Structures are given as structure tokens and as C-alpha cells.
Input
Amino acid sequence: MNNNNSYAEFLKAVGNNSTSLQAEKLLNEIYWDLFLQHIHWEQTQTRIMKLIDDALDRRDEEAFDMYTQQLDEFKQVQGYEYKEK
Output
């Protein structure tokens, strides 16, 4: 499901005199989609960060530059921002 249309789809489903069960199913689908996207983001970020750490350990400047650029591009495409825990 596309995030841009999920809220609009929900409102449309609720507005079409649908049952509360149908609206609840659609809302659950929206939540699952957002949850899975978040998990994907975290796993990809973790994988790239590990590659960056490994490149630093090996003192491989070329790999470090490549992976940091990859992380920056991924953050821009996904619209997420890395936050330290």
C-alpha cells in the first residue's frame, strides 16, 4: 500500500458506509505497512552501518566513502533521518 494514499483510502472506505469491520481491516493493513517499512529501514540502516564500521576497521577509505554515500542516499530516498540512540 502506498503511504501517500493510505489515509485517503481509509477515509474513502469509512465514508462509503462500510462496516466498522472493513474500516478496521483497512486500518490494520495501513499499520502493518508502516510497521514493515520501519523494520526495513532499521535493518537496512544497521546493515550499512556495519559495512561502514568494517571499512573503518580495515582503514578502507574507498569502501567507507561508498557506504556512507549509500547510507545518505538511502536516507534521502526513504525520508528517514538517522538518530543516535
